[in-house]
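S1.2 Input.
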Amino acid sequence: MLRPATLLLLVALSAAGCGTRNPLAPSLGPASDPAALGTFVVRPSDLPSLEDIAARGVPATAADRAVLGAPGAPAAAENEPAATPAVLWNRLTRELGLAAKLPPPLFARDYALVQVAISDALVAAGEVRRELPDRSVAAGAAYEVLVYLFPAASGGIAERAAAEVAADDRGLRGHAVRGWLFGRAVGALLVQHGKTDGSDAVFTGPMPSGDGIWTGVNPVLPMCGSWKTWMIQGGDEIQPEPPYPFGSSADLADVEEVWQVSLHRTADQIAIVHRWADLPPPAIWGDLLDQRIERDRLDARAAARAHAFLDMTMADAFICCWNTKYTYWTARPFQRRPGLVTVIPTPNFPSYSSGHATISAAAAEVMGELFPAEREYFRAQAEEAAISRLWGGIHFRHDNEQGLAAGRRIGARVVALMRSSGPGGALAAAR
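S1.3 Output.
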């Protein structure tokens, strides 16, 4: 629990704030390039208001008082005392996303919003050159975004945030409090980004019909391909070749292959199907990154930047893939071959191209850039993720091959940006 003196300081900071203005509102200054700071959303024009918060604090809200006066989550503090903020908040996002049963594209979107908020907050805190502790800054940013994404879980999110701020508490010096308020201000910029990314677009139809067309109902996220991207120009920018024409020899060969695979699956193949299906791919790749962050002891800023690049890449890959899916509306294998037995349930959206293949290939390129010694390992993991969908009976080979091809192109685009991004390049500390 925070010391009583810190709570008194919070009251003092509130009294010293800037009138009735909303302390978490984004700056409305002229547009400028975030890359000049090494941030992704925070712009140089946002820095004056952020500097004000870092220097003097702002009027505290009821949420601030509730979190900063709370005892925190002792279990989290005891079990993860050394977890860098990006890892800690990635794990909580994973927990919340799984509990909410989010579709994978939404899962990736949420990961990106949280981790970009943390990365931008830590970079911006360095720019204002105030003594703002990393944990409190990251906690404020992550709290603001996660409560927006998972309002029903706000109590648990507040407990975790309270534990992080308490770990940074320095009594009367007030750095933890100002760090928390600073992080919340940056988090609010990411909330605004999320509210304007098009993820609330509603599909009004019509659904196509005809030979080889997907015949389900209530398709998952048919507007996802139109969402705002992070690292590329839009969901239609990087696309695979069209699917095979219905009834062509290549198309019929794909159908027959899925059928034959279903009749001769091995125990090892089934295990690999479950390895890539029992968790959403963003969670799997996020876990792989967490393991390496902890293994290599990356500092808070390097870890957050690594997660931001990976999570934005996966979010963009989903948008591109969903653009493909709802351009062609291709039927799933079980719709083409009655009696086909699958290892796992077929997802409720069109087949072409494979989301697992697209997302994993893109993620593998970014992970290989972050950890070059393991580049081929990550690429092999992407190949395994892709083939697992054929072995599971829910994708055709062409779905997987073209998903991999598009994902590699997306990943290569991001890697090029990483190599030219902001102060310090992509992630010098992560290599």
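S1.4 Remarks. The first helix runs from residue 4 to 15.
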